[in-house]
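re: the backbone from monday

yeah here it is again, tokenized this time
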């Protein structure tokens, strides 16, 4: 199932090139603040799944006619792994890797939609990079997840750009600007990916030119390892997002 938010805070299921509005079926209060309808849906997904699947066969509108929003606008945190591909470590001339460095956090307020502009800080005058990453969306509250059980806690996957101003300041300060974390265009649920998560190709183009093109099989710390490490330090909640690190080509 492909779950998206669109328009004025509506929830939709994407079916080929149409999107079906399932906001009411999911019991989401459109426009509520804080916008945690998707978190609640993820948390209650087991009970809602059949109803959603039935609703998804209904009439939709062309996907191209709606404005997509980011699928989880209010996660409790975005966990992000730095230097999780060897070739990116080499291009940045750093010796550490995600498996021994740990992770940092991006604020939920940096999240933006898949078609929204990344707004550059006007006073930066600095190098600003895109980082093409796979996003893991957590499905269940968890702590101390052993790697062999990681799939039980993944709700699904999405695409993410971890934008960054290069420089010497704390990493968080350089990665926390509003719009510096586009996520979308939707969440693909875990059951549609399964073991294939270990070999997903991610590609980023700038004006039609391929800049980043890599496979999750080349991750230094793999998906089970990332969930194991993050959950060994803090509780993960439904809707939490893990940014899995970027390959070379920034
Ligand atoms: Mn990154």
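seq for it, each position gets an aa:
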């Amino acid at each position: 199932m492909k779950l998206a938010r669109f328009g004025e805070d509506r929830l939709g299921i994407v079916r080929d090139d149409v999107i079906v509005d399932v906001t009411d079926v999911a019991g989401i209060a459109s426009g509520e603040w804080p916008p945690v309808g998707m978190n609640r849906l993820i948390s209650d997904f087991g009970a809602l799944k059949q109803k959603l699947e039935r609703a998804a066969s209904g009439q939709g509108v062309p996907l191209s006619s709606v404005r997509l929003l980011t699928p989880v606008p209010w996660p409790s945190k975005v966990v992000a792994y730095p230097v999780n591909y060897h070739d990116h470590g080499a291009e940045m001339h750093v010796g550490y890797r995600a498996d021994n460095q740990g992770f940092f956090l991006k604020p939920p307020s940096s999240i933006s939609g898949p078609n929204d502009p990344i707004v550059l800080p006007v006073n930066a005058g600095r190098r600003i990079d895109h980082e093409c990453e796979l996003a893991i969306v957590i499905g269940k509250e968890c702590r101390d997840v052993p790697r062999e059980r990681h799939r039980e806690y993944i709700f699904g996957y999405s695409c993410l750009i971890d934008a960054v101003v290069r420089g010497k300041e704390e990493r968080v300060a350089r990665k926390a600007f509003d719009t510096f974390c586009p996520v979308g265009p939707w969440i693909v649920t875990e059951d549609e990916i399964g073991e294939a998560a270990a070999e997903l190709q991610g590609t980023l183009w700038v004006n039609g030119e391929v800049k980043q093109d890599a496979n999750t099989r080349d991750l230094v710390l793999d998906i089970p390892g990332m969930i194991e490490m993050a959950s060994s330090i803090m509780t993960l909640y439904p809707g939490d997002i893990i940014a899995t690190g970027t390959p070379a080509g920034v």
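Residues 198 and 223 are 7 Å apart (CA to CA). Residues 80, 82, 131, 133, 162, 243, 245-246 surround manganese (II) ion (CB under 6 Å).
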